[in-house]
Amino acid sequence: MTKHTLLLAAALGLFAGALAPQADARIAPRPTGVIGVDSNQLTPDYWIDRQRQADRVVLDRGAIALQNRELQQTDPSMHDVEGLPAELDAARVREWIEDLSSRPQRQLYDVQGKPVTGKAIDGYIAALNLKAIPKTQKTRYGLVVHRAALRTFPTTTRVFSSDDDTDIDRFQESALFPGTPVAIVHESGDGEWLFVVSERYAAWIEKQYVAEGSKTQVFGYARKVPYLVVTGAKVRTTFTPDLPAVSDLQLDMGIRVPVLRDWPGTRPVNGQAAYASHVVELPVRNDDGSLRIVPALLPRTADVSADYLPLTRANLIRQAFKFLGERYGWGHSYGTRDCSGFVSEVYRSFGVQLPRNTSAQSVSPALNRLAFDAGDSREKRMDAASELQVGDLVYIPGHVMMVIGHDNGMPYVIHDTNGGSWLGPDGELVRGRLNGVSVTPLTPLRFNASQTYVDRMTNIQRIRP
């Protein structure tokens, strides 16, 4: 290298150094308006850097498989769909439906804020078509082909608890995702809805979103290898006018889809060369309602993994923060999720199964549960709060939060909430209206003007050996 070249290289190095950010630079935190939270705390690295052995595996694949098996065997909220008998009797089908679709006992309101009439309720009950349940029926199976709502009654009509609320639809139960196996056990009076039993929920789904196949087809798809796991909050398949059923399809965190790794790169899929994409297999519904499995494209830029992620504290925090700021969606409304759906999908990206609702999650016998009752002292509750670990699930009536660490002498949580309240400097209750996936300290949050979240803790569930 000549002397001239050395001088030029040195000059370029100094120039690059002047442009490069300093490694020890700190961005001054900015207030957020939420109690105890500044802008630096809204990044996953802030919390990961505070952990000891952040990358140590908490539960390995074998331990996760054992826990999932115990969940299936011991948790009454779970359904062994594949293990259903070859024939179902009327009493069992009726019990599933009536457990969910009972006549509302409180006044409900429509989207205009008008009371839902008794006549309208009679129509929803009649649509259940209970008299048509046969004495016995062959157990039928299907795969969900599109993210679809699960409903209390076979209707898309939205109803609410008060005349000034048009957000939380009380007929919205949950959602099912593409590739989910279900048992098809009944049909609505108009023939447009199916009552299905999935692993975690039994409810009404629009018939157009379920493709019926043999038991072998349905569960063969669910077990097919190799596969990809969605590790982003959500990804979308490539748009294609050639096959609209798999065009721009939303796949949420933790969904597992078979992948065709040997597909020739120059061979088109739905009118597009495959070399820049993953070729995955997805279920579609034929015109006669039957199941067909077809190839579809998922961009290589999509946030997916060749397997479930290792369950570590760092990964728990990273996965949860991928939802930060997403709007709250009761029962998976708005293409998003609610509090229990949020923690379920974070853990699903590691292969960990959880019950669907907070009422079942909080008491599940398959997890490491610390229970509280009304007689427990505040001191006991605060001691438990001080010992919370990353990934712990904290339950209050109707809500769940995931712990991300401790800071400023307080445990912090990330949670999908439509509320959030605390006391302001004047001692008055501040209603934060967070209405999305949010980071907050746990201890200042208020259940009401006189009680904190800690006062109302019902359970802590720890996903640990």
Topology (elements, then pairings):
Layout: H1 3-19, H2 44-48, E1 57-59, H3 61-74, E2 87-89, H4 90-100, H5 118-127, E3 136-138, E4 140-144, E5 148-151, E6 172-176, E7 181-187, E8 193-197, E9 202-206, E10 210-213, H6 215-222, E11 227-230, E12 234-236, E13 250-252, E14 256-258, E15 268-269, E16 272-273, E17 277-285, E18 291-299, E19 304-305, E20 311-312, H7 313-321, H8 339-348, H9 358-361, E21 368-371, H10 378-386, E22 393-396, E23 399-407, E24 410-417, E25 421-423, E26 429-431, E27 436-441, E28 459-462
Antiparallel strand pairs: 1-20, 2-3, 4-7, 4-10, 5-6, 7-8, 8-9, 11-14, 11-19, 12-13, 15-16, 17-18, 21-28, 22-23, 22-28, 23-24, 24-27, 25-26
Description:
By secondary structure, the protein is an alpha+beta fold. It has 3 domains: 190 residues, endopeptidase domain like (from Nostoc punctiforme) (endopeptidase fold (from Nostoc punctiforme)); 129 residues, no CATH class; 79 residues, Roll (SH3 type barrels), CATH 2.30.30. It has 10 helices and 28 strands. It has a 6-stranded antiparallel β-sheet with strand order 21-28-22-23-24-27. Strand 7 and strand 8 form a beta hairpin. The longest helix is centred in the first third of the chain and has 17 residues. It is globular. The N and C termini lie far apart (59 Å). The N terminus is likely disordered. This is SH3 domain-containing protein. Pfam families: NLPC_P60 (PF00877), SH3_6 (PF12913). Belongs to the peptidase C40 family.
